[in-house]
Amino acid sequence: MNKQITIWVLALAAGIGLIWFFNISREGSREPEVSISASATPVISATPEPSPAASRKPIVSQQPEVINKYPPAECTLTGSITFLSPTLYENKDANIIYKNIDSVARHIIWAVSPGENLSVGPNLFASLPLPDGTEDVTVTLPENYTSKNYTLTAKVTYGVIINRDLVIKESSCVGQIPVTVKF
Predict the structure, then answer these.
(1) 78 and 97 Cβ atoms separated by less than 8 Å
(2) Sorted alphabetically, which keywords does the UniProt record give (predicted)?
(3) Which end of the chain, N or C, is more open, meaning fewer C-beta atoms within 10 Å of its C-beta?
(4) Where do the structural domains in the chain lie, given as residue ranges?
């Protein structure tokens, strides 16, 4: 019976020794990351403060993963348009010059000031060369227009992939196109 108890005690001691050894080995393979916290307000104390403690949990900062085929889109508006009759206008180098358009599905969003229902194009990059190009601007007056002077501005859309999701962004065009009604 003494032999059996001795064997059980030795087995138990060996088991505890193995558990202790594996626990020490596993802790030694981790690389602790030190996190230091600083107070914005200085604290004056008569007792010394403890030094920053090492944290065993890694601190992970989640930055969005941004993947772009091109840099952000850019565009410039040039020239002017003069209407000589309700259906005839002179295009004086009125162009939209664009760069870094990533898809034929991107839009050109026009703004007319004063806000009337002028029809302005192009509106979509589907039939335009990509990623860069220059295109003539076209305008049609509404039947009951009220102003003799308009100003066209525009924005173009482009895509950015952030964390595997497509996000559509807009970029405002530099410049403007004056539209004058001369009849």
Answers:
(1) yes
(2) Membrane, Transmembrane, Transmembrane helix
(3) N
(4) 74-181
pTM more than 0.85? no
CA distance 52 to 48: 12
91, 79 in Cβ contact below 8 A? Answer: yes
The single-letter DSSP state of residue 16 is: H
CA-to-CA separations, 29 to 59, 148, 182, in angstroms, rounded: 17, 78, 82
Point out the residues of the chain with pLDDT beneath 50: 29-45, 47
Q: Are 140 and 122 in contact (CB under 8 A)?
A: no
Find out if CATH 2.60.40 is the number for domain 74-181. yes
User: What is the C-alpha to C-alpha distance for residues 113 and 161, in angstroms, rounded to an integer?
Assistant: 33
In angstroms, the CA 131 to CA 74 distance is: 10
Residue 172 to residues 73, 85, 89, 107, 153, Cα–Cα distance (Å)? 9, 31, 26, 12, 8
pLDDT in tens, 65-84: 777 888 999 999 999 999 99
